[in-house]
Amino acid sequence: MTLDLIDKGQKLEVIHIPDASIRAQAIRLGIYEGAKLVCSEKLPAGPVILQNRMQEIAIGRNLAKKIAIKSIS
Amino acid sequence: MSCHNPIADLSIPQGSKKIVLAGNPNVGKSVFFNALTGLYVDVSNFPGTTVDISVGKYKDAVVMDTPGVYGVSSFNDEERVARDVILYADVILNVVDAVHLERDLFLTQQIIDMGIPVVIALNMMDEVKRNGLIIDIEKLSKELGVEVIPTTITKKEGLDKIHAALDRAKIGNPISEIKSLMDSVVDKVHVPAEALLVLEEDENVLDRHNLDNNYEQREYIYKIRRNHIDAIIDTIIVETNKGASFKTKLGRWMLRPLTAIPILFLMLFLTYELIGVFVAQTIVGITEEVIMGQYYYNFIMGIMTNFVNEGNFIGQLLIGEFGILTMAPIYLFGLLLPLVAGFYFILSLMEDSGYLPRIAALVDRLLTGLGLNGRAIIPIILGFGCVTMATITTRLLGSKRERFIATMLLGLAIPCSAQLGVIIGLIAPLGGKMLLLYTITIFIVFTLTGTLLNKIMPGASTDLLIDLPPIRIPILKNVLKKTYIKSKMFILEAGPLFVLGAAIITLLQYSGTLEIISDALAPITVGFLKLPKETTQTFIMGIIRRDFGAAGLNILAEQGLLNPLQVVVSLVAITLFVPCIAAIMVVFKERSWQESVIIWVGSFVISFLTAGILAQIVL
């Protein structure tokens, strides 16, 4: 599934991020293929917020549609 | 030292040791900088960017502050500037947010991989305690191979230890795979640190050494660095509780629409009270009318009338109605500077408190429809202060496409504060219906233009990918310093344009061109916009200063030449009409001339078309 389909509060693992430049920017913030994170917030039709410990990142909905993930428990 | 090092232009004494402050955004670098350097600080802007570097002295060394970045690379202007300062540093004081080690240590390890001596200030230790985290600092220091000093810089805790440690700064433990890769290219560059950036495919560093990008190691290096850091973090952090603090909750409320929208409106209301009421009326009343309008005006006229005659061209150019020594400085320092400083004050508060990225996330959905992302809220907010200033800020947007759309929308549909004051004064007495008609018309034009541009322009805009820093109480001294630096930059960048603009207007007026344009527009104004002929003159005045145009309408309305609906139609026209001459020039400076012409002619046409259609419907 893609990141835009995740539910708030759900844990997830990032499977694939499409663009090389996005990959390079995201990995510095702790988002990379294989990273395990929590969706801490989801704005209606807007960005998905991913959390790792105290760190939070907002990802625009269009980008979220391109990021492949799987939900984990 | 490399011959094409861009930081060589900064005034740094030859041979002195360079201590560079580096760290992620909002980690307290500036507080360290102030604590180390004291009063004598030199701030310089990097040409073509909105990025500033502060340079000060500490003992015999030069201390340089850099913009906050998540890594050394070139994804944006801040990074390119920080990269060049970091690359040629002798010692780096890396300020790390102890609560966000996953994010911050990536930069730390990258600096260590570069082989530059480092001292780490593990800052925000008070928050570590408050959030129930325990960090094994000794182990962290051992893993990284450099000194790690716990600090809470806002309370000056740990500062004395930093002073001592700076003399002992040493090269840390690089990741061995990366080190051996670097050894293979180190003979192709000037300083060893550049070897890392060559491998990480940094285009500017490759260019400077005439190297082709056939290394393609960025992804591989980032990945092992990430894994290396995550592995270290796993062994040094213990979480003792997970209870969310008030600030964490507040951060969430600022994102969830149900609470975030009321909070946003409250903030906008407070901003209006501070800038729209206090600065625009009280402060500007003193600065524009008394200090500049009387004291300065009388002073400069007293001197200049001895040399020039107000009646001839030179006299008009210097001290006439639109003179470069009269109107330009009175407008710039009396009216615009207080407003611009007010807006930068608010923006710095929002930035340092961590609120700004949350607004960006909140409005992201709305702006993606216009071909922008949430980050574009920054130039839009600033546009309500001064469109000229906001247009300069569009540099921070991710693509040329976004910069064009934002510039167009700013020039077209965002009324600047100078104009807004007069517009509100004109429309408020006419009642809610007229205000609504005006607001809705402008909003439709704004949305429609953005949506259409997004549809027809080739390419794609960048998506939002933004770090949401924790909510923190801003430090007033830092906010004031930022306000000062940014306002100064505005005067330096926009000031010459206002002077040039005043000169062009005088030239147009003296040669009779203004009258020709005005006469040519008159038939459209009368026939299509259904407004009296005199209104055309005020539209032209709007080019000189946006508030002049609106103020001209005020006079016409007072004379009874405009009925309420005509006031709305003319206000719509003047809001959408080409921005003031300084804004036009900044557009030409920032965009290509083709784009600028499109923006200029486009807003001209849209303005008359919209006002005309509105007139045909309501009049």
Would you give an account of this structure?
The complex is a heterodimer of chains A (73) and B (619). Chain A is α+β, with helices and mostly antiparallel strands and 73 residues long. Chain A is built from two helices and five strands. Chain A has one domain: Ferrous iron transport protein A (FeoA) (SH3 type barrels). Helices cover 18% and strands 38% of the residues of chain A. In chain A, strands 4-3-2-1-5 form a five-stranded antiparallel beta sheet. Chain B is α/β, with parallel strands linked by helices. Chain B contains 27 helices and ten strands. In chain B, helix 13 runs antiparallel to helix 21 and helix 22 crosses helix 23. Chain B is elongated. Strand 4 of chain A pairs antiparallel with strand 10 of chain B.
Attribute tags:
heterodimer, A: 73 residues, alpha+beta, SH3 type barrels, globular, B: 619 residues, alpha/beta, Rossmann fold, seven-stranded mixed beta sheet
SSE class of chain B: alpha/beta
Poorly predicted residue ranges of chain A: none
- Counting DSSP E segments of at least 2 residues, the number of strands of chain B comes to 10
Q: Would you count the extended β strands of chain A for me?
A: 5
Shape of chain B: elongated
What is the C-level CATH assignment of chain A?
Mainly Beta
CATH superfamily of chain A: Ferrous iron transport protein A (FeoA)
**Overall spatial form of chain A:** globular
Q: Separation of termini of chain B?
A: 71 Å
Keywords (chain A): Iron
Protein name (chain A): Ferrous iron transport protein A
InterPro entries (chain A): Fe-transptr_FeoA-like, FeoA_core_dom, Transcriptional_repressor_C
GO molecular function, one term (chain A): transition metal ion binding
